[in-house]
Amino acid sequence: LSGAGGVVSSLGPITPYEGNYMAKISSGNGAIGGASSALEQTFTVPSGAKTLTIHYNFVSEEYPEYVGSVFNDVFNAILYTPQGSKEIVFEEVNSANFKPISGVPCGSGDCTWGETGWVTATIDVAQWAGTNDTLTLTVHDVGDTVFDSIVLLDKISIQPWIFQYDGCTKVPDNPAVGLLTAFSNSNHTGACDEHDRCYQTCW
C-alpha cells in the first residue's frame, strides 16, 4: 500500500461485497501528495487459470456538483504482464454510473457522495500462466485535493477454466500445455479434443 488506505468493515452504510472486511484506498488524508493512493500485489498466475476478477465500489465526494468538470477523479486497475500493461478498469467521476449515497463520513469537502455500487471486472489471464504479474489499483484526485474519492475492493480472485459438456463440468488441465485426458463418469468416453484441453470432473 502506498498512500492512504487499509482494511475496513464498512464505509458508512456500505458493507463488503462478501464476508466481513474489504480493502479501502483513498485520495484523502495520507494520500501521496495529498492526491493519490495505490494498492499493489505481485503474484504468479497459476497453471489452469482463466480469469482474474476484481470487485470494486468507486465512491466520490466530487458527486454531484463537480461531475462534468475538471475535478475528474480517477480509479484504475492495471495488470502488468510480461507482454506489457493491461488495463482492467478505468473509472472517472465524469463518466461513472454514480448514484447518491448518504451516511459516508465527511472528507474535506461538503459531504455529498456518489457511489457506483459493487462492480465486477475481469481479465483473461490464461496466456500468462506461470508468469509473475503485478496488479496495481490506484485512485487519483484530479484538479484539487479538497474533495476526496475512495475505492473499496473485495474478493479479488483467480478462477480456473470451467466448461459444460453433456451436463458435466470440465476443468481444463493446463490449457497452455494442452494435456489431453479421458473423461470419467460422463456420457463422453473419449479424450478431450484439442480445443477443450481438459479433464472431466462429474458428480
Structure description:
- The chain is mainly beta and 203 residues long.
- Helices cover 0% and strands 46% of the residues.
- The protein is built from no helices and 14 strands.
- The strands form three sheets. Strands 1, 2, 4, 7, 8, 9 and 11 form a seven-stranded antiparallel sheet that branches.
- Strand 12 and strand 13 form a beta hairpin.
- The protein is globular and about 50 Å long.
- The relative contact order is 0.24.
Briefly, what is this?
Helix content is 0%, strand content 46%. The protein is built from no helices and 14 strands. The relative contact order is 0.24.
Shape: globular
What are the low-pLDDT stretches, counting only 5+ consecutive residues below 50? 163-203
**Proportion of helical residues:** under 10%
Rg calc: 21 Å
Q: How much of the residues is beta strand, in percent?
A: over 45%
Number of strands: 14
- Find the structural class using helix and strand composition: mainly beta
In round numbers, the mean pLDDT is 84
* Main sheet record: 7 strands, antiparallel
Number of helices: 0
User: Could you state the order of secondary-structure elements as H and E?
Assistant: EEEEEEEEEEEEEE
From the N-terminal CA to the C-terminal CA, the straight-line distance is 43 Å
